[in-house]
Amino acid sequence: MKSFTSTPPHLHTTSTLSLSKSTTQQSTSISTHPSNQPNPSNNQNHRKKMVYTLVVHLYAKDDQTSLDKLTAKLQEASQVYSHDKETLGWFVMRSESDPRAFTIVERYEHEGSQKSSYWQTFDQYVLPLLDRPMDLRRFHELDTSKDVRVETDEGMWEATRKHQASE
Fold first, then answer.
1. In a domain, 44, yes or no
2. Contact assessment for residue 77 and residue 126, using Cβ atoms and an 8 Å cutoff
3. Three-state DSSP class for 36?
4. Which residue stretches belong to region Disordered (predicted)?
5. pLDDT per residue of the chain (167 residues) written in tens, 0 to 9
6. Which of 40, 106, 108, 110 has the fewest CB atoms within 10 Å distance of its CB?
7. Is 66 among the domain residues?
8. 91 belongs to a structural domain
9. CB of 130 within 8 A of CB of 104?
């Protein structure tokens, strides 16, 4: 896997990227803290920018202490990173079917946005709590600022507009 100098070391991994059962399960949030919401200063225009996204899968050791410590550290990290200036969102989730499986979705204005000194605490705390290496994937989100219409059924589009207006 290619390593980028602007990516914090805790996100570098040599793990094999694979789609295992634990990483494809439906997930739920483990924290509803208000700081887990996207940075409001960037929320309106994020669709028009090239957004750099990291998706990290973690799998905790099979003991309650490791699970509790990992959960707390991930909640803390979300609360810290969600307030960083160029962070659009930093979300942590736990699998519904496997409480040891976690996913982090980090959204940044650009690849060089991760400058928080907090990340230096991450690896040394988290790595001993994991049963397997972190699975890190890097993405650039697609530009969705312009309307794209693949579906041609106008009735479906009208029903969709009505549904969205009622929310």
1. yes
2. no
3. helix
4. 1-46
5. 333 334 443 443 333 333 333 333 333 344 434 444 444 444 444 455 679 999 999 999 999 999 999 999 999 999 998 988 888 999 999 999 999 999 999 999 887 766 667 778 888 999 999 999 999 999 999 888 898 999 999 999 999 999 999 87
6. 40
7. yes
8. yes
9. no
- Within the chain, how many helices (H) and strands (E) appear? 4, 5
Kindly state whether residue 4 falls inside one of the protein's structural domains. Answer: no
The angle formed by the CA atoms of residues 80, 134 and 46, to the nearest 5 degrees, is: 45
CA distance 89 to 82: 6
- What total number of domains does the chain contain? 1
CATH number at residue 133: 3.30.70.100
Model pTM score: 0.67
Length of the chain: 167
Neighbours of 62 (CB within 10 A): 9
- Are the C-beta atoms of 57 and 23 separated by less than 8 Å? yes
Q: Which residues of 27-39 are buried (b: 16+ CB within 10 A; e: fewer)?
A: beebbeeeebeeb
